[in-house]
Automatic annotation (TrEMBL):
Taxonomic lineage: Bacteria, Bacillati, Actinomycetota, Actinomycetes, Pseudonocardiales
Protein name, UniProt field: Amidinotransferase
Length: 284
């Protein structure tokens, strides 16, 4: 009798992609004009045309994979509006908007609120607490993983549970380089047996124990993959979109049966963003 190791058995199992609904904002006014995270250096040159080309390829990748992509208009004076993931959390038609910690980004919240309202989302609440949306919230299909430590207020976690009507698991971030949950963890598969990838060193000791308990078979990223924002990935259950430099993580995912699609987001990374930062998922 041949015994197959659990991890090998998983890699041989078929992964199922599901069509997703994304909201994005083109980097029409992208620039690094201020510094609100360790990645941002206003003295470093930024190529706006290259940023647009990289963003366009990310959008095209989603569409080639069969996903619906809607766009919100970029606004002058808001160079980080391209990072749409920070603009709201949508689960089962309910929308919890955003409230930014940095005053430089505060005006973004109203533009995205108007988009949701104009597109028929009536069950919409704007938060009282600082809440940077999918930057710090990751929906597993059964519960919401919620980060805090640098941006989102811990009190916003209970507000999200109340407004969205889903259970919330709080996680503490400890490294300022991974200032949002979506820079240190992403959901590979949603559902009762949700699967994630994450970088343990971004989390407090207690939060690491929580993640180990919830996701004993998680894909664990190393420091090199985390350092290129490799954990800022996007998955549809089978296809995983990753920054081009995240080669070690890509191999781990391929070994488990996922199809990896690399994109170059180096110019957008100058503002501390990657594929997921550019992508708000509307969870239906």
């Amino acid at each position: 009798m041949t015994v197959i190791a659990p991890e090998l058995a998983e890699s041989r199992s078929a992964k199922e992609a599901t069509a997703r609904h994304y909201l994005m904002c083109p980097p029409e006014y992208f620039a690094v004009e201020y510094s609100i995270n360790p990645w941002m250096d206003p003295s470093a040159p930024v190529d706006a045309e290259l940023a647009m080309a990289q963003w366009t390829e990310l959008k095209n990748t989603y569409e080639r994979l069969g996903h619906a992509v809607e766009l919100v208009d970029a606004q002058p004076g808001l160079p980080d509006m391209v990072f749409a993931a920070n603009s709201g959390t949508v689960i089962d038609g309910r929308v919890l908007g955003a409230r930014f910690r940095a005053p430089e980004r505060a005006a973004e919240a109203e533009h995205f609120r108007r988009w949701f309202t104009d597109h028929g989302y009536r069950d919409l609440v704007m938060p009282e607490r600082i809440n940077e949306a999918e930057g710090d919230f990751a929906w597993t299909g059964g519960f919401l993983l919620a980060g805090h430590g640098f941006r989102t207020d811990p009190a916003a976690h209970s507000e999200a549970q109340e407004q969205l009507g889903v259970p919330v698991v709080s996680l503490s971030l400890r490294d300022p380089n991974y200032y949002h949950l979506d820079t240190a963890l992403f959901v590979l598969e949603k559902g009762p047996e949700a699967k994630v990838a994450y970088y343990p060193e971004a989390f407090s000791a207690g939060s690491r124990r929580v993640l180990e308990r919830l996701f004993p078979d998680a894909v664990i990223a190393d420091a090199a993959d985390a350092a290129c924002l490799g954990l800022n990935g996007v998955s549809d259950g089978r296809n995983v979109v990753l920054p081009a430099e995240a080669t070690g993580l890509a191999k781990s995912l391929t070994d488990r049966g996922y199809a990896v699609h690399h994109v170059d987001i180096a110019e957008l990374r100058k503002s501390g963003g990657g594929p997921k930062c550019c992508t708000l998922e509307i969870h239906s």
